[in-house]
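Handout, page 2. Input:
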Amino acid sequence: METHLTWYGQSAFKITTATGKLLLIDPWLTNPVFARGKEELAALDHVDLILLTHGHSDHVGNAVEIGKRTDAKLVSNFDLNAAMISVLGYPEAQAIQKEENAPPVYAGNPTGLLIALRDGPTIYHTGDTDLFSDMALVSRFNKIDIMLVCIGDHFTMGPARAAEAVKLVDPRIVIPMHYGTFPVLTGTPEAFDRELKQRNLKAELRVMNIGETITLER
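Output:
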């Protein structure tokens, strides 16, 4: 059994675990760079968990539609969880407490996600968080196999700050995200690669194509 990771563009990912569970992170499938977004959205007939990093529309994305159709459990911070229910109508029974489509109310602080899969890799998704020193604590208690890191700049870390984040976390593999969706997101994988090399970091850079699925080793 293997773990599979699919990138939909921006910060949206699908994880299919070795035990057959399906997880979605920041599921904005109908973003402007994923040509098959509507078809992929319609084809999702079973989702176990939807994990959200924060309440911006490019991260909340299609979460409510998916949740209502698939009975997926919603995982987010307490305030975002409450806003998703009260403002956007996410089914309350499926909500796990832990712009245009974003809730026009306080939706909590932005977060990253640490996903430790049984019989699979440990994945760290930075969300839209900037570089901060406590990222070093992530790897103190968890060996990070895969780091999904924003590099687009403007709203998030750019390539240089993202490389510093990789230095703190020390993952086995790093996958850039949150770039190229809009012109203002100017960070590129090429610039990120240069920044990683300048720091002599040992993490393997894996640049995914939009819509691509890769196999993740434990």
